[in-house]
Amino acid sequence: MSDNDHTTEGEPGALRTPIVAVLGHVDHGKTSLLDKIRGSAVHEGEAGAITQHIGSTAVPLDTISDIAGELVDPDDFDLPGLLYIDTPGHHSFSTLRSRGGALADIAILVVDVNDGFQPQTHEAMDILARTGTPFIVAANKIDTVPGWNPEPNRPSKVAIESQSDRVESDLNERLYEIIGQLSSKDISADMYWRVQDFQSNVGVVPVSAETGEGVPDLLTVLMGLSQRYMKDEMAIDVGGPAAGTVLEVKDTQGFGTTIDGVIYDGTIQANDTIVVGAKPNSIVTEVRALLQPKPLAEIRSDEEFEQVSEVAAAEGVKIAAPDLDDAMAGAPIRVVRDRDTSDVVDLVQQELADIEVSTDDDGLTVKADTLGSLEALVSTLEESEIPVMDASVGDVAPRDVRMAETASSSQEQSILAFNVDVLDDAQQLADQEDVRLFGHDVIYRLIEEYEEYVEEIEEAQQ
Ligand code: GDP
Description:
462 residues, initiation factor, 24% strand, binds guanosine-5'-diphosphate, 31% helix, protein biosynthesis, single chain, 22 strands
C-alpha cells in the first residue's frame, strides 16, 4: 500500500488505477493496439480478465501478470492495474492537470515503424512534453519489417536498429529538443533493453498490433513506469467527493443527454449533486442514474447498460442527469457533497479559465472539439507567436463569426476550427461578412493553412 499519509474516510492510502491514453498519427495503429490489448487480456486471463467501462477498459494487475509471465510479478506492484481510454488520439487527451486532475496519467505514443514521425506524432509529443506526461513509444507494425524475427525470446535488436532507424533518430532529436524534463538522456536503439529495468520514463517498445508480438512487453513497461513514476499521484480519497473528466456528451435512449466520463478521484453516487464544466456557465445538477456496461460478454457494445449505485476512481461511467446539454468534452466533473456548491462552481470555472481564452487583444478566433485539443491548439499558436483573441469548445456558430469580425486586421478576421463543424448559419454569415474559415483535423496543417494565407496576403500587399 502507499506510504503516502493521505488519509481517507474510507480506505486510507488507497491507490487507483493509472489512466493510459493512446496517441499517434492516423493509421499508425492506435485502434488496433487497443483492440489487441483488450483481446490479449480476454484471451489470457480467466473470467474478470478485464472490465469494460464506459469509454475505457480496465486491465487488472493479475491479468497483466498472466500476459507478461515472469516479467510482471504481482508482488512487486501495489497499483491495481491499468485503465485504458478507449478513444485514441489527443482529442480526448484533456490536460487539466493543474489541480491534480488529468484524463491521462501515462501515454502510449504509437509510431508506425515504416512511416516514422508524422504531423500528429509531433503534435502528440508536444502535448506530452508540455504536460510532463510519462510515455512510451510503441514502434508498431514490426510484423511488416522484412527480416523481423518473431521469436518468443525478445525481438532482434539488430532488426530494430536497421528498420526503425527513423523512429529512433527522430525520437532522439525530438526528445533532446522538446522534452528536457523527461529523464531520457540518450534514447538509442537499445533503449528497449534498458526500459525493462525501468531506468527512464521514455522507452521504445517494438510491437505488432496485428500479431500481438511485443504487447506483453508493452504492458510490462507501462506497469513498471506507473509503479515507478505514478505511485504517489495515484493516492485517492475513496470516500471523498468524486473528481472526473467528461469524455463525451451524447444522447442515451431513455435517459436524454448523458455524459460519458472518467472518475479519477473519490466516489460518485446516484443522487449526488454535481458540477460539470459547460459554456457559458457550469452546470449544477443532480445525478439521476449511473450507468456501466453489462459484464464482459458484450465487449464494445455501447447499447446495454446496468444501473449502479456508485462508482469510484478510476472508472469510466455514464452519468444521466438533467440539463447536461451544454457540457463540454474534456471539462471537469465534480461531486459537491459536504462542500458549498458555489465553491465547487468556482473551482470548475477556474479550471476552465485556465484553458479557454477570451481577451480584449486582437487576434484569431479559435474553436476545437474538446478542451484537450483546444489547449493543444492554443499553445501551438502561442509557440508560433500567432495571437488568439477568443478560444472555445464547440462547432463554429454565428457568435464566433461575430467575434472574428471584430479583429482589426483582415487576416485576423479568421476562424481556426479544429475537428468541429461549421453551423449553416455561421457559414452564411462568414460568407457575407468576409470572415475566413480554416478547418482541419491536424493542428499543424490547420496552422500551416492559415500561415500560407497570411503569406499570400502579405505578398499581395507588397
Ligand atoms: P489508427 O488510425 O491509428 O487507429 O490506426 P488503425 O488501428 O485503424 O490501423 C490502421 C491500419 O493499419 C489498419 O488497416 C490496421 O489493420 C493496420 N495495422 C495496425 N497495426 C498493424 C500492425 O501491427 N501490423 C500490420 N501489418 N498492420 C497494422
